[in-house]
Amino acid sequence: MNKALLSPSMMCADLTRLEHILLQFEKEGVEYLHVDIMDGEFVPNITLGVDFCRLLRRLTVIPLDIHLMIVNPENKLKWFDIRPGELVSVHCESAVDIRGCLKYVRDIGANALTDVSPDTPLSVLDDLYGYIDGVLIMSVNPGFAGQRIIPNSFDKVRDLRARLAKRGITDKIIEVDGNISFENAAKMRDAGADIFVGGTSSVFCGDCIADNIARLRKILK
Ligand code: DX5
Ligand code: ZN
Questions:
Q1: 18 Cβ contact partners less than 8 Å away, ≥ 6 residues apart
Q2: How far apart are CA 187 and CA 201, in angstroms?
Q3: How close is the Cα of 168 to the center of ligand 1, in Å?
Q4: What is the greatest pairwise CA distance in the chain?
Q5: Annotated catalytic residue 97
Q6: What is the predicted pLDDT for the residue at 2?
Q7: Alpha-carbon distance 182 to 16, whole Å?
Q8: Residues 134-156: what's their mean pLDDT?
Q9: d(CA 40, CA 75)
Q10: Residue 1 pLDDT exceeds 80
Q11: pLDDT tens per residue, range 29-58
Q12: Pick from 113, 7, 91: which is nearest to 56 by CA?
């Protein structure tokens, strides 16, 4: 099983304290910064954007984990100035040419993931395994922080791990995103997840980010 990595959801961060938060993340060795890009069409919300990605790259060396919840991602990937080593996830439900999107990301040297929303069956991935570095399993409906986890999300992660193992595939990332609380993180780790998007119910809950990260690390050992 891959090492458990943290990717705090930056739409949940207090942006008035952004630099302080990023310093804490660097000190705690946080591996990625999860940036939710929403266009108000694919999901009924508009959040962070291209300029925010540029700002983060100026402020920190922590690589971005860009979650694209947008229509026509094919035409917009080039706007993000994607860097080698970043994670970029594209919803399989949003793209006409998902393989083209994944190839674009991989050709840059970034990690290409496809996102699967709660109502989307894993069978959509059957012909994509050769094009991806991983899968982001949405455990809430994409669009808003602070939601409750959809109960069958744990089984979905377990099922994906089993499908991969059946094909002899062991190196794919499984990222989980949506109400990854301390309790849910433990269950998701047990189910086979390895990148955890921490939002309002873990990394950013209460007022001590460092304690929350230490608590997650202990749970995800
Ligand atoms: C929801 C976003 C998540 C969200 C996580 O569409 O993809 O990253 O911000 O926030 P919590 O952990 O509060 O669900
Ligand atoms: Zn997200």
A1: 59
A2: 14
A3: 31
A4: 47
A5: no
A6: 86
A7: 25
A8: 98
A9: 16
A10: no
A11: 999 999 999 999 999 999 999 999 999 999
A12: 7
